[in-house]
Amino acid sequence: MTRLAVLFLAGSLLAGCPDSGVPCAVARDCPSTQRCVNGGCVDPGLASSALGEACRTTADCGSGLTCDTDAQGFPGGFCTATCTSSAGCIASACTPVAGLSVCMPACTADSQCRQGYGCCATLGNVCTPLAACTPAQCTRPVVASALPPAQVQDFGTHKVNDEIPFNVPAGTGSFTIVQQARLATLTITFQNTLQDNSAVPLTITRPDGTVVYDDRISVNDSSPDGGTDPSGHYAFFGGSSPSTGAFTIPNTSASLDAGVPSGTWKFKVNDYAYECTILSGCNDGGTTENTYDVSVVTTPGPGTTMDVAFYIVTDAFSEANAGTDPSVQRMVQTFKGIYAQAGITVNPVFHDVSATDKARFGTNISATTTGPCDDLSQMFTLSSAHPGNTMNLFLVQSLRDASGGGGGTVVGIDGTIPGPASYNGTVQSGAVVSAADLFALTSGCGGGVNIGGCGADRVAYIAAHETGHFLGLFHTTESSGSDFDPLVDTPKCPCLSCASPTDLPNCTSTSNPPFISASRCLGTPPGCGGGNNLMFWFLQTGASAGALSAEQIRVMRLSPLVH
Amino acid sequence: MIVLLLAALIAVPRPPQGGAPAKDAGAQQLSDVELRERVETYLGALDRPVPKERWKALGPRAAPILEAVIADSSQFPTRRAKAVDGLVAAAPDRAAQLVGTLAQDEKQPPVVRVAAMHGTSQVLSAPRALTELRPILTGARSMGLRAEAADLISRKSGGCAEVRAQVAREKAQHRGAFDRAMKRCKE
Asked: Which of A95, A464, A490, B21 could form a Cys-Cys staple with A476, CB 3.0–4.6 A?
């Protein structure tokens, strides 16, 4: 054989695996960015990739296919086609992924899917990005803000750790960073405990370069009275915002005082799953692949009007008689009165939900299983039926703690603090309130507000409390008497100062601290306050008065919800 | 993030996943006034569920207070329901005497009946709980109550056959309420 022939033969052999030379039998043997061709891993080339194979752009995909790119959350890119039914998909199934219906390759085991993909049984045995494999009934809509375009900066889909610059115009009262999961995993395991994967900026940076929030840093919030008090920080995140996360500034005394400087700010897209890849303590769930639809809304200043949509998820009344039913009208008037003291005018509307949705969500929805695919969060997506900038309050027949703790009956729960105001239809777009008391004790509803003796007033108070959370308010003092909201003008009720003599020794217990009741937080002894506040953790006849501090009112009126 | 994850458990009005330890030395030393105050505190929680262990720590001394709330129809239904939850944990023997009747009583508010239904599952033997829950599954006027009975029965040995039979009798538009039970029966 001549030397030329040897070189020709060698060249022919190399053509089978021209790039890495990594041998492969199936696509999963290759990196996610490559295809398996003739027993070797190769980069995608012009029009070469079939459905489900790697791609960099649509030009790499075969006829009729488009490339869902790595940046969109499809590891290594993924050639596919949109569809309306599985009849239009060959050796694949029409599958809802990232808000679209696309053809995904059929499979029976993970080994048949590329790296970064798994065989998702809940979506009908198709290869999907790991983050896309959710329960079949789970929807995580990505929606647009209902605010005028001048107030909304939409940055499209980004991967975690992408840094997004955004503009804060002069005169801005507040801004809210909103992340909505496109393809994001549902949970992480942190210190052996399963947690929902919350969406929260990794960092937020002011125009002068100062980092005003860093989710990686543990800050010292120690308060002289024995609790934690985050009021001195420019920004505060309370936690628990899976799939859809909203972050509003200002939300602390420090940022209310300092204001929101105009100019170019920046934030990094992030979730707990990403932090799992850069911080210690996670056992499972870390990934750098999750993607979010990212936007920022700005508000010009304190608003005065709030539109409220009551969703009737109970058989007790309907949209048709809500306007004339005395108990419902009493509830509305009391709710309005609570917000009137904050200078906020409430415009209420009522919406029925379908019989099917009422059946699914109306009775005994769990207040404690609050992942994005759980019933509570899925119920909030019903608000997509009525786009707008509304506070969505879901009135259900009953609500329970379904956790192992067995806490039983609950009267209300908010989605997140704050809620994604102006984004109706997400898994966090509302709060739920038990309507079980609405028509009870009507004889006590004749005079002034009577939360201890009039069911409608009591439901109104609970609805107002949950709305306060959606607008960005935390409990003034948590049940343990050791955690306080980030505002300095809300009275505290520290356990060490205010607990009963019997409870006092347990104040420093981390496992079994006492619960601080409202009656111990009414100003006696001095330094024990907040029991009359709307945002106290607990409702007590004779104590709960719906009080609000000046800073609480400022936070609420700076929410995009109040216009 | 460590701090924030902990904050997620304590600062947001979503309830903690775990309960407090059962041991509460202080609860045994409470005066009557303090005991009543503690019961009132637990009954007044808004978006913070009171872990079962906290109720349990109050012990049988709390039973008369809770039974009075449960029996008082001039109290708010959610308050009475919480009192049922509390009695089941604090004094299961006393609770066993009333949860079955309460659960089946069509005159009671649904939220109270739901609490009692859960109580039957906790304080009665499995056969007895099934006996109490079965009429609710098949005969409660409220579809939500039938569905909740299905959820509880599906956790009992042999309960799935009854659940499936009931789902077959339900209108199609109501079957979504039985999803939790049916899912458990498929597992």
From this structure: A490
